[in-house]
Amino acid sequence: MKRVLAIILGGGAGTRLYPLTKLRAKPAVPVAGKYRLIDIPVSNCINSEIFKIYVLTQFNSASLNRHIARTYSFAGFTDGFVEVLAAQQTLENLNWFQGTADAVRQYLWLIEEWDVDEYLILSGDHLYRMDYRQFVQRHRETGADITLSVLPIDERRASDFGLVKIDESGRIINFSEKPKGDALKVMHVDTTVLGLTPEQAQEQPYIASMGIYVFKKEVLTKLLKEASERTDFGKEIIPDASKDYNVQAYLYDGYWEDIGTIEAFYHANLALTKQPQPPFSFYDEQAPIYTRARYLPPSKLLDCQITESMIGEGCILKNCRIEHSVLGVRSRIEAGSLIQDSLIMGADFYQPFAERQSDCETGEIPLGIGANTTIRRAIIDKNARIGCDVQIVNKDNVQEAERENQGFYIKNGIVVVLKNAVIPDGTII
Q1: CB-side exposure of 172: number of CA atoms within 13 Å?
Q2: Is 94 buried (19+), middle (13-18) or exposed (0-12) by CB count in 10 A?
Q3: Which of 95, 45, 103 minimizes the C-alpha distance to 74?
Q4: Looking at 2-11, 17-26, 71-80, 407-416, which range is the least confident one?
Q5: How confident is the prediction for the chain on average, in pLDDT?
């Protein structure tokens, strides 16, 4: 794997994940209480012995830069690195990244300097665990110019993805980006060729591209230099390449979730609490997910009732009920509070006297969740200050609302409280 260079695409403005992307790049969005989205592909690379990793980004990259600098430093005896490449103006190009392929094209001068055979192109907003060694091995065995990682998918979700058709050898013969209606029906295939049973093939009659690619070095270079007007891998580069190049499909049969929307992000986080077997587990010693070491104290639970939940390090919970929720690092929940079906991202720091008794009479609202507060089906971003006797329950079942001046949004019926927001005592959302 020393001959492979990984390129993680940090994505654009992350509008589908807004307001979580208001102050941070999409790969820097916290997940599972203590990680960030970028930790998933980087950890997969490290576990696959791929140590040369670039992360391309252009929006709000300060927190992402900080996280990567603090988390991933390889010893001086290897040529391994994880580096952020942010969009920049040059004499040749004064523009922002125009798409996934254009982002790689603008840094081709740097990427080409590495003496490697393949480029592994990854996305920064997927939750999955994958051994890229098998992926690259399949690419080499088939003599492919490009290999796509694909998975079978049902009709309900099919039009959200790029779909492919393959022949008996696994070569891709047709590609369609997010088709709908008749265009979707055309992409219907017999997925038993991928090894599915007839019953599974009936349920999942489409083959979706996961947005994960391996390119031969010279093929990617040629494709990007030849057609500068093509700016996107999924929409333009790969569909065009399938006519003239050997483009192969690699079947991935594990858990994979694109968490690029608020709803998908919410459900993927809460699914981690499932028993006995969550769809994705962070408790795998063979393939750990790495993140920044914070050296936080253990969580302190004082007379709490907690069911089906994950609690990050350094939390202080007092006489409260937590049900089917994920609490991030340094979360502070005061007495009498109820947290249900929610994702609390925690805080970046402790206030002085973090263990003091909260006082609802002073009018001061400290970091965390105040006393006698109820939160249901919500995402509370980092460093939020929620007062006493607050109800965040979406009592009118509103599906979409934009209340940025009041510190929250509602997306798909899920209340999202902004980072650093202050919600006064007695507020009802």
Answers
A1: 32
A2: exposed
A3: 45
A4: 71-80
A5: 89
For residue 42 the two structure tokens come to 């980087």
Integer Cα distance of 374 and 423 in angstroms: 13
d(CA 380, CA 421): 9
What is the separation of C-alpha 48 from the centre of its chain, rounded to a whole number of angstroms? 19
Of the candidates 166, 160, 202, which has an alpha carbon nearest to the alpha carbon of residue 179? 160
Report the amino acid identity of residue 338: L
Residues 6 or more apart whose Cβ sits within 8 Å of residue 421: 381, 384, 385, 407, 408
Cis before 179? omega within 30: no
For residues 72 and 50, what is the distance between their CA atoms, to the nearest angstrom? Answer: 13
Intra-chain end-to-end CA distance of the chain, in Å: 51
How far is the C-alpha of 258 from the C-alpha of 297, rounded, in Å? 33
Average of per-residue pLDDT across 95-113? 80
Residue 243 carries which side chain, given as an amino acid letter? K
Matching residue, tokens 């990854």? 122
Which amino acid, 206? Y
Q: Give me the residues paired with residue 86 across strands.
A: 57
Q: What confidence tier does 323 reach under pLDDT thresholds 50, 70, 90?
A: very high
Query: Which residues sit opposite 208 in a β-bridge?
Result: 151, 163
- Global pTM value: 0.92
In three-state secondary structure terms, 64 is helix
Q: 124, 227 in Cβ contact below 8 A?
A: no
Q: Which two tokens stand for residue 292?
A: 């920044």
**Residue 41 phi, psi dihedral angles, 5° rounding:** -65, -35
Instruction: Report pLDDT digits (tens) over 191-239.
Output: 887 778 888 888 888 999 998 999 999 998 998 888 777 777 877 888 8
Strands (E), 27-117: 30-31, 35-36, 52-57, 81-86
- Contact, 331 vs 385, CB < 8 A? no
Q: Which residue has the tokens 């979706």?
A: 208
